[in-house]
Amino acid sequence: MKKSNNFTTGQVYENVIRKERRGEYLGKTVQVIPHITDEIKFNIKRGAEGAEVAICEIGGTVGDIESLPFLEAIRQMGIEEGRGNACYVHLTLVPWIPTAGELKTKPTQHSVKELREIGIQPDILLCRADRPIPDEERRKIALFTNVATEAVISAVDSDSIYKIPGMLHEQMLDEIVCHKLGILAKAADLSVWKHLISAWEHPEHFVDIAFVGKYVDLTESYKSLTEALIHAGMHTRSKVKVHYMDSEEIEQNGCDALSHMDAILVPGGFGKRGTEGKIAAIRYAREMKLPYLGICLGMQLAVIEFARDVAGLTLANSTEFDPASPHTVVGLISEWKDASGKTEKRDENSDLGGTMRLGAQKCPVNPGTLAAKIYGLEVNERHRHRYEVNNHYVAQLEAAGLVISARTPTENLCEMIELPPDVHPWFVACQFHPEFTSNPRAGHPLFKAYIEAAIAHKEANK
Question: What's the pTM value of the predicted model, to 2 decimals?
Answer without folding.
Answer: 0.86
